[in-house]
Amino acid sequence: MTFSRTDEKYQTLETHLSQDQYLMVHLNPTYPGVLIPENFLASPTLTLKLSYNFQGVTVITPELITAELMFNGKHFSCRIPLAAIWGCTTIAEKNFIWPESLSANSYESLATEMESIKKPKLAVNKQEDISTPSSNLKKIESDPKQEEPVAENKKRPNLTRIK
C-alpha cells in the first residue's frame, strides 16, 4: 500500500498524538487557512504543543488539526491545515520533517537556527615521548602535577554491554 505525503504526515501525527503524552508540531503560520492568535502570524515558523490530554478538545483529520490551546492564559480555537505542518518532535525527541511544507522564510530560519547550535569541542592531551633505551614509558605533558610516567604498552579498559 502506498501513501501520499499527506497520508504519511497524518498517520505520523495521529500515531504519536495517540501514543505519547504530547507532540510538538512545527508549522508555517503564514500558510492559507491557519488560524492562530494574530501576534504569531508574523513569525516564519511556529511550534505548538498538542495533546489529547489538554483541557480543550484536539481533533486531527487527514486534512486539518483543530485544537483549543491556551495562549497567555486564554483559550484559542486553532485550525491548522496539515499542509502547513513542516515537522514534528515526539516526546522521545524523534524528529519528522516534511520539507515540501517549508516556506522560504521557514527554511532560512531553520538553517540559521541549525548553524547557531554549537558543537562540543574535543579536548586532546598532547603527549611527549621521553623514552630512554632502558624504558618504554611516556609522560603526559598537559598535567604538570602528574610526575609518574605512564606505561605505553598498557591496555586500556574496554566497556562491554551485557544484556
Topology at a glance:
Elements: H1 5-19, E1 23-27, E2 46-50, E3 58-60, E4 64-71, E5 74-81, E6 85-89, E7 95-97, H2 104-116, E8 127-129, E9 137-140, E10 150-151
Overview of the molecule:
- The protein is of the alpha+beta class and about 160 residues long.
- It is built from two helices and ten strands, in the order αβββββββαβββ.
- A four-stranded antiparallel β-sheet has the order 2-1-6-7. A three-stranded antiparallel β-sheet has the order 3-4-5, with helices on one face.
- A hairpin with a 3-residue loop joins β3 (about 60) and β4 (about 65-70).
- The longest helix has 15 residues, at about 5-20.
- It is extended and about 65 Å long.
- The protein starts with a helix and ends in a 12-residue tail after the last strand.
- About 20% of the residues are buried.
- Residues about 125-145 have low confidence and may be disordered.
Task: Describe the structure concisely.
This protein is of the alpha+beta class. The chain has helices at 5-19, 104-116, and strands spanning 23-27, 46-50, 58-60, 64-71, 74-81, 85-89, 95-97, 127-129, 137-140, 150-151. The model is unreliable at 127-144 (pLDDT under 50).
